Amino acid sequence: MFHIKNEAEKATVYIYGTIGKDYWDEDSSNTAKNFSQTLDELGNRPIDIRIDSCGGDVYEGFAIASAIQRYEGQVTAYVDGMAASAASYIAIMADKVVMSSFAQFMIHNAWTFACGNAHELMDVIKQLEGLDDTIARLLATRTGSELDEIKAAMAAETWYTAEQALEAGFCDEVIETKQRNAACLDRDLMRNFKHVPDGLLEKSHDENNLPIEASSLVLGNHVYTIKE
Which CATH number does 3-111+135-209 carry? Predict the structure, then answer.
């Protein structure tokens, strides 16, 4: 759920927690619908977006990124703790990206759980490949890097320190701040990542299994039905 701090000349919007709906903690949900409505209410004032998120639903991330892109006011994104997965391409849509010196930035290929016959699973593969290409193009446009370079980094699940993110072009400035652990509200998604830096994993919610029926597709933490 978005938290807003209104000031005379600008507003601050907090994206702390899951991108999309969090089924275990409603307060950690950050849906595209609520975010877009929030921006509409701000009247194009300059805004700061404070981010600490492990990611979530890829399509919710796309919609939030689009809302930032079309916002007419100045947007500065601050990565307070982490901008991982879907939160990464949300952050780079801002006019300026600032990271705390201890913050983390992570990009990776889209992942899912799926079940069904061979034809249905081939469709899932095509969808994931299309998502990877879309995300890679967003990141390459922001950084000026070669598309193949970004795709290789995504395939390797690459974690960047703030200084590494600055060098790679994902952020514009690094602010020196007192060391602490990233405070993302839900780390369950991080257990699916392969190369999480030491110290970033901590137990949060009890593990639960989402019900997945035949011919379904899970992207982020949402379940979609695959139609013929």
Answer: 3.90.226.10
